[in-house]
Design goal:
44% helix; D-Maltodextrin-Binding Protein, domain 2; 16 helices; 339 residues; single chain
Length: 339
């Protein structure tokens, strides 16, 4: 954690001179607050990597006091709403906390400094690109559902298999509803719920390694979508009311065919950040990345078995063209020297 690690030694006197010179230069960009900027490191890979990317830039480039704290969507947002801490949640999915978050914004307690991703996150059904290349007519769920023979269930090869979500995940409910709405059981399909996210990833990886067809639900940004060439099926238009019913176990209406809404994923912040640290707030207003970029970052981390901090460092070293657009030139130079 940034707040507990020992200071990094600067390799050479020359490098130290550069840092001091930049820090003391007229007009050098400063953090603008003595308050600690605590950043939530969520439990999934993309949010964890983003937390470390932003922490490095704020600490090394702006001179902020930064601490990375453990987080997750519901407890982090609840703490921000009630205590004003952590200061920043760099990848906050508001769909699960929509009502509370909107009230917090209306009360002036929290706010969005910008988007975490350009265009929002994605959820859909996917097939491998090599399967799409071999069968170009497979474009929509209906096209795939008509061909269970192409996606045989390993335990029952006479039927197709849809790989959905582990038990207890919110997407398990949505996939089960869509499976029912399409009448897939009557059309020769089985709905498979892996025991964990790791099991789902292993099933997908195994299919791609063997170049076998597979139909699976997934979301992005993720390492899986960064590692493997996939084709996202042309999902139906979003019916918001139907989606809300499809994701509610207590909904009395029968499931309806609908796509997934593009989830808004924001840089959530306690309101004091914009008031007391406008330089930090301005920085976070510029950091949105394409989902494809995040996928690539995570794929590198997965391939190299890297933790979130090492994944962040690799991004800062190899993708200067991206992150240097977020910051003034003097900040960029200080981050480069620190690396």
């Amino acid at each position: 954690m940034f707040g507990k690690r020992t200071p990094r030694a600067v390799a050479t006197g020359a490098a130290l001179g550069i840092v001091l010179g930049l820090a003391g230069a007229a007009g050098a960009t400063e953090c603008g607050t003595d308050k600690t900027i605590d950043i939530a490191e969520m439990t999934w890979a993309s949010a964890a990597a983003l937390a470390h990317i932003h922490a490095r830039i704020l600490e090394d480039g702006y001179g902020c006091t930064v601490e990375i704290v453990t987080g997750d969507t519901v407890p982090t947002s609840a703490s921000m709403l009630s205590k004003g801490t952590p200061a920043i949640a760099p990848e906050l999915w508001t769909s699960a906390i929509q009502e509370q978050w909107k009230k917090g914004e209306a009360d002036g307690v929290v706010g969005a400094l910008g988007n975490a991703f350009k265009g929002g996150a994605v959820e859909a059904w996917f097939i491998p690109q090599y399967t799409k290349d071999e069968y170009p007519e497979l474009e929509s769920p209906e096209d795939v559902i008509a061909r269970p023979d192409l996606f045989p269930d390993p335990e029952n090869p006479d039927e197709g298999r849809l790989y959905a979500c582990p038990p207890g995940w919110a997407c398990e409910i949505a996939n089960a509803a869509l499976f029912e709405a399409y009448g897939m059981e009557d059309k020769g399909w089985n709905l498979f719920s892996p025991g964990s996210g790791g099991n789902l990833d292993a099933s997908i990886a195994r299919a791609f390694t063997r170049e076998e067809p597979i139909l699976f639900y997934y979301w992005g940004p993720t390492a899986i979508l960064g590692k493997y060439p996939t084709y996202m099926l042309d999902m139906p238009e979003v019916d918001v009311a139907a989606y809300q019913c499809n994701t509610n176990r207590d909904c009395a209406e029968p499931p309806v065919v609908t796509g997934w809404p593009s989830s808004e994923v924001i840089v959530g912040a306690a309101s004091w950040v914009a008031q007391d640290a406008p330089v930090v707030a301005d920085y976070f207003s510029k950091v949105a990345m394409d989902v494809g970029q995040i996928n690539a970052i995570l794929a590198w981390g997965d391939d190299n078995k890297a933790d979130a901090e090492d994944t962040a460092i690799n991004f800062l070293k190899t993708e200067e063209a991206t992150w240097t657009e977020w910051v003034p030139a003097d900040v960029a130079e200080k981050v480069k020297v620190a690396l």
